[in-house]
Amino acid sequence: MSTITLTADTISSTVKDNDIVLIDFWAAWCGPCRMFAPVFEASSEAHPEVVHAKVDTEAEQQLAAELQITSIPTLMAFRDGILVFNQAGALPAPALEQVLAGVKELDMDEVRAKIAERSSAA
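Structure for Thioredoxin, as requested:
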């Protein structure tokens, strides 16, 4: 599956309607973003079961601000609509594979229980 482009109008439904969504926040002027792009694209081809999406932070400044993107590239991973990974910086291919494997292996019942525990303590 090739990488898709997300906007403020499409991000919510994409995250809700898919099991795993990886989002690369980038900009055309960003050197590390351009270096990470082929790594992200290769991952998208290798893992068609995972939605790989990109958000152009220049075109989607409001969305980037809402999601508190302060440096790029930033990679976010969502599983079952829950943010489970959020890190700035370009990753080499093996590190991206490790992130993806970790996201796939998560026990989502445990994740939801921890979220419930935190919200009841607050």
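The two ends are 40 Å apart (CA to CA).
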